[in-house]
Amino acid sequence: LAKTTQPISMDSYEGQEVNITCSHNNIATNDYITWYQQFPSQGPRFIIQGYKTKVTNEVASLFIPADRKSSTLSLPRVSLSDTAVYYCLVGDPPPRTGTASKLTFGTGTRLQVTL
Amino acid sequence: DTGVSQNPRHKITKRGQNVTFRCDPISEHNRLYWYRQTLGQGPEFLTYFQNEAQLEKSRLLSDRFSAERPKGSFSTLEIQRTEQGDSAMYLCASSPTPGQGVKTNTGELFFGEGSRLTVL
């Protein structure tokens, strides 16, 4: 299983760009990198997924270097409502392989945004 | 709202009692997952269904835990003889199967808001 390492917590001011890096040194060839966001007392919500280089959607960007041993979630101009826990997951996503047990969440990064 | 629905949202019970949680997935999704989340930790996988077939079970799913999805639609998670260590948020998620009429497959799991269990 590809183990991931993320910072336990990060602080930011509203309006700043936030970059959360995830290390996954033993990522496998078939593995994708997926990020989820979780607010208190709610289930996680999918943010973005990528395999290599850069992926961008309306919420975030995901940067993946050529060796794929790390990835960076970039949140542009965060607001107070972005205060949440962010999880980096590495694996072959369940909807592709059905191997749900191999996709683990870890402890995530707690992002606190203040004025 | 056509998202994943979980009931009850909160359950307080005494040790030794049985509890049952229900999950109604997004209607067109034939894959359903159960996770458990304790305070300060990420969700931990418990079990996974494709239609009515239970395809994977975690070692976390002790003999006191049983999950069913009898008609391939809603699912129930029952915990028998609850212990204080069972106190957690129980999360359900669903996803479509590749080729199930979805245009793109991002690998996204759609989670419900969870059922919080407190065992006294």
Q: Biggest chain pair contact, residues each?
A: A-B, 26 and 34 residues
Beta-strand proportion of chain B: over 45%
Cα radius of gyration of chain B in angstroms: 14 Å
The total count of helices of chain A amounts to 1
Order of helices and strands of chain A: EEEEEEEEHE
In short:
The complex is a heterodimer of chains A (115) and B (120). Chain A contains 1 helix and 9 strands, in the order ββββββββαβ.
Structural features, described:
- The complex is a heterodimer of chains A (115) and B (120).
- With 115 residues, chain A is mainly β.
- Chain A has one helix at residues 94-97, and strands at 9-13, 18-23, 32-38, 45-50, 53-56, 61-64, 70-75, 84-91, 109-114.
- Chain A has a 5-stranded mixed β-sheet with strand order 1-9-8-3-4, with no helix packed on it. Chain A has a 4-stranded antiparallel β-sheet with strand order 2-7-6-5, with no helix packed on it.
- In chain A, strand 6 and strand 7 form a beta hairpin.
- Chain B has strands at residues 5-7, 10-13, 19-24, 31-37, 44-50, 53-57, 65-68, 75-79, 88-95, 110-111, 115-119.
- In chain B, the strands form 2 sheets. In chain B, strands 2, 4, 5, 6, 9, 10 and 11 form a 7-stranded mixed β-sheet that branches.
- The model of chain B has no long low-confidence stretch (mean pLDDT 90).
- The interface between A and B is medium-sized, with 26 and 34 residues.
Helices and strands, with pairings:
The complex is a heterodimer of chains A (115) and B (120).
Chain A (H helix, E strand, L loop, with lengths): L8 E5 L4 E6 L8 E7 L6 E6 L2 E4 L4 E4 L5 E6 L8 E8 L2 H4 L11 E6 L1
Parallel strand pairs in A: 1-9
Antiparallel strand pairs in A: 2-7, 3-4, 3-8, 5-6, 6-7, 8-9
Chain B lengths: L4 E3 L2 E4 L5 E6 L6 E7 L6 E7 L2 E5 L7 E4 L6 E5 L8 E8 L14 E2 L3 E5 L1
